[in-house]
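Working notes for the structural subgroup meeting. M.R. asked for a predicted model of this chain before we commit to crystallization trials. I am recording the input and output together here so anyone reviewing the notebook later can reproduce the run.

Input as submitted:
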Amino acid sequence: MDMRSLPNLPSQRFAPAFLGSAMRSDSQPNPDGSTAPDNGAGAEKRAQRRWRRLQHLLPRLAQQLTPPTFDACCRNLHRGPHPVLAPICSRLGHSPVRHREMARQLAASMMDAREHVVTIQKSAAEPWVTQAAKTFDLPLVRWDASQLAAPEQLGSLPPNIAFHKIAQHRDEWIIAVADRVDVLHLRRGGKVEQAVLRRLEVDPFGVRVGMDDPKAAERVLEAGALGRFLPRSSANTSDAPLPRRDPSSPSVSPVQSSLEHDAWLVHCTRRCDGPWPGQSWSQYRDEMLLGTDEAASRETLDSLRRIVRMRRLIAGATTSKSEHRVVCLSAVPLPELLRRRTFRSHVSRWDYEPFGIAIRRSAASKIGLRPVVYGPVSVRDGLPADERFLYQAEGRDQDWTAEKEWRSLGDVDLDSLDVDDVCVFVPSEADARVIAEVNHRGWPICHAERWLQTSAQ
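Returned structure, recorded in token form:
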């Protein structure tokens, strides 16, 4: 990232990640050379600064305390007098790219942490910090609402202190109490930014901000925070792709024509905002923390590429009662399905995309795929227990029967099918070349571009 593109930001506020927490640290090594905190002047200095920050960020709460009682509270919360690090962030949304950018910053914080790590329940960073502390084997102090709402758990405190208010101001609380704050992702004008700016008004030390979005970080940098740059990772290219069938091969044409008929079942892929099908949130967060930037590539083509590489459709959808994980396909011919497609604004995507897998219906039947049973709830109740995964309500606002859905209970092993019984479809020649790199089985790759043109007319 070119620092010249960041006008009016003081250059001394920037440093590469490898300098770590040694930058502008206010905790000195002990006489024995260890980084463990002492209980003397260093602890007293930290207590004074915490108190000053609390007065500025949460003045009403500070009015009910004294410096000694607040220090006792912090020692109980921190499980000792040691300094603590709070990785924080604004709300992340669903974007894997944003998750990866934040996770890179979090991993850097974990690797150079000399303090105990703290997080607070229901904050945006809490599930990520909890997972990172486990992954990097760091001590974690996790504050929860019940702990903060019960002053008797925090030591010798005056009665009637409104600690329950902390749950309503969790961002201000953790930013005031933590000795060091690492801002992993910042939304300009948000609550986290405002709280960080207020902290910097009375204590210009101990705040670092990730520089993945320099514009969002601009105001806290100007207020005294230290910017942290991280080098971009590169994907592992050691596995050279094997030679593949040319995706423009004439042998594709007959299959492409047959997709216009109902002899095939169609599974359209879509982008994945979050864990892949079959991937837990813990595994997803670890992949974002430890993987390369390629881990955030989860667009529709990436989803299809993963399916072709794994040679498997992983059951990710759930039935209406969430009792079964299934793979869903449609018996509607692909051209008609694409002509029907509608953009769903509430999820910012099309209901059907021109990327996916088609399975010959006769072959699908042999490996256990079956058509859905539509009807009222009474129809579901009348099905045997091992067939209820096939039930689908007809729909009120939308006629679900038009999808002509088929289902598999559990994954579909595409490797178990003959090569000619599977077809991959993509919208363009460029997409076909991407899929051909991982198409080890040599499945035919068909272009759906002309059907998209028909749907646009």
